[in-house]
Amino acid sequence: MQPIARSRLVWISLQASAGRGTVVSFPQLDAIRGKAITGIQAFSAEDMTVTPDGVAVIPDVLNMFLNLLDGSKEQQFRIPGNSLRTGANAGVWKEFTPFVPDWQRSYVEFGSAVVVPAGGNSIPFLVFYLP
Amino acid sequence: MNWHRAHLITARIGGAGAAVGAGQVFRWNDTEPIRDKRIYGVVLLNSGDIRLTPGLFNVSDAEVSLTFFSGAEVVHGDVPRIAVTTQRGGRYPIWEPVVVDWDRSFARVNVAKGVVGEEYLALVVIYSENEDGPC
Description:
The complex is a heterodimer of chains A (131) and B (135).
Chain A: E1 6-14, E2 23-25, E3 37-42, E4 64-70, E5 73-80, E6 94-99, E7 107-110, E8 121-129
Antiparallel strand pairs in A: 1-8, 2-7, 3-6, 3-8, 4-5, 4-7
Chain B: E1 5-13, E2 25-26, E3 38-45, E4 58-59, E5 64-70, E6 73-80, E7 94-99, E8 101-109, E9 119-128
Parallel strand pairs in B: 4-9
Antiparallel strand pairs in B: 1-9, 2-8, 3-7, 3-9, 5-6, 5-8
């Protein structure tokens, strides 16, 4: 695995229960906007219980897929959520040939219904990027 | 995953017997030997790795995220505890070498907890003495 130049935790917030095919976009990510990313990890409640804003982390990411787009080009399409959890993959994180994602267009998609409790859920990602 | 040099630093979580609230931040002690050194990675120890710090205080398993600055830049922001332990197949992240500003860098507690006695986070810092050090 390549050395990590920079890393930053970002998260998607779920405020309401989601159904099959529901897509949720990333918030505005000023700190990493325009940066080429080299890898990513996802976490479930098994790894961390809350994000730094105090919102409970989603119980599992088994039915989640990550889509990273560069403009209209699908650079990484439907990456299964659990393949991004290092806890489920012997500590190995997903590495990419560096590219600059368009975070406004990138999104998470659900393959089945997700029940979100009052107070919401978050899906955290640790993004590795170049300065 | 070559440890060129390693140094253990600690951060005291809360006061003696005091509860720690979510969002509280704590800074690192014992950083003098690694100031201005090039840092290659960090490993956060669990109480299952070592029970006591060299100062004979309990090692804390508090749910924290770690933020590291280099100058005014956040180089690694809100890194979750699980991402810098060796509990995942023994792997931990190796960084591009970076000089960390330890006065700015901190650990933030994300989940409130009670503290019995005193407890400390324990962080192994992997570093190089000079620019020729291996990665």
